[in-house]
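re: that chain from earlier
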Amino acid sequence: MLEHIGITINEESDIDAFYKDLLGLKEERIFELYEDVSEKLFGTGERVPVTLLSGEDFFMEVFLTDKKQTPVYNHICISVANRNDIIQKAKSKGFPVTRIERESRDDIVFLRDRSGNIFEIKGR
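^ sequence. v structure.
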């Protein structure tokens, strides 16, 4: 059973605009990852703020840093009841939306936050 996902972002404004407003996640708490723990767990030795967000049945830890990463195939897939609403909202807020139409199945839809994290959006 999935308990939580940890991701890195570079834009603090994405916490509200992308994760809370667009994806509908709820802020549970904010804490800091201290240098010693950061070094032991991730090898960075960097103190970073972390926002814990909750979805319907999972949590997401969002680590805010200026360190850039290059995602290749990494993505998170979420299933939502209001898929078209989220797609339109993402477009209106300037978040990149990639939609690949398919004849026999639902379209493939991917959204990106400003840090390059990729989310596949599926309907329920």
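The chain is about 25% helix and 40% strand.
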